[in-house]
Design a protein that fits this description.
Helix content: 25-40%
Number of strands: 14
Radius of gyration: 17 Å
Shape: globular
Order of helices and strands: EEEEEHEEEEHEEHHEEEHH
Bound molecules: uridine-5'-diphosphate
Structural class: alpha+beta
Distance between the termini: 34 Å
Largest sheet: 7 strands, antiparallel
Strand content: 25-35%
């Protein structure tokens, strides 16, 4: 499959049209942003790690019955995915308190929840991705009741599969963000990426942060953290 025109350039990826009208090619960059674009930088090797890690996770999830946009890995940084219209919701699942949850509710990081939580943000950079609930999403016609129910069920399933998988690598899956899209016939599939940019990973033993919080909070060792997660994923421990 051949790239034709560039359709879009986001903060971490470029998207190209292809010779197949049902597919696009995603090209992962090393660029990193945080705090809605206020903090900018690069993380050497991130694009390749996020591309390959996302594809491994998408294939694992497909095997476990979660439909995804994944089609084919083309190279280190490029992947063919199904063309979807992205539902403008960021779906966040949490197993352990951290980040904006801790800030918003005034609790320490590291509280292990008995049940995972789910929340939605309206994906809109100009508004700073505000938190919304299901009724708001319905009122704004972002999704239908059926679509929201499907998304919730898929997100909790993704959590179960990923939590177990990462536990086996000595990593606690703290929280993560998912995005969903609709293919031409309206079927909802898991889209976007699953990487240390979009998940919080803590080492199960040392509780060391192995994710983008190292960049957000200037903790150092950013590249090493991404590489460590990828090393465990590929089994070269
Ligand atoms: N997240 C993301 N993109 C966003 C916001 C959050 O990928 O625009 C991920 C983030 O990496 C974390 C989870 O979603 O794994 C929960 O993030 P949180 O709401 O705590 O926001 P943050 O503290 O990152 O601002």
């Amino acid at each position: 499959m051949e790239k034709t025109v560039q359709l879009y350039e986001g903060k971490a990826k470029k998207v190209y049209a292809t010779t197949d009208e049902n597919c696009v090619i995603v090209d992962y960059k090393d660029d990193a942003t945080a705090f809605n674009g206020l903090k900018k930088g690069t993380i050497a090797g991130k694009g390749s790690i996020n591309n390959r890690m996302t594809n491994m996770m998408m294939q694992l999830l497909e095997k476990e019955g979660v439909p995804t946009h994944f089609v084919e890995e083309l190279s280190d940084r490029e992947t063919v995915v199904k063309k979807v219209s992205i539902i403008p919701l960021e779906v966040i699942i949490r197993n352990i308190s951290a980040g904006s949850f801790s800030k918003r509710y005034g609790v320490q990081e590291g509280i292990v929840f008995e049940q995972p939580t789910i929340e939605f943000s309206y994906k809109n950079d100009d508004l700073g991705d505000p938190l919304i609930n299901e009724y708001h999403a319905l009122a704004l016609k972002i999704a239908t009741r059926e679509e929201i129910d499907t998304i919730k069920a898929m997100a909790f399933k993704v959590n179960e599969v990923m939590k177990t998988f990462f536990k086996g690598l000595g990593i606690d899956l703290v929280d993560f963000k998912l995005e969903f899209g609709k293919v031409a016939d309206g079927t909802i599939v898991l889209a976007d990426e699953i990487s240390p940019d979009t998940c919080r990973f803590w080492d199960s033993e040392t509780h060391e942060k192995l994710d983008k919080d190292r960049f957000r909070r200037d903790l150092g060792g950013v590249e090493d953290a991404y590489q460590e997660v990828f090393k465990r994923l590929t089994g070269n421990m």
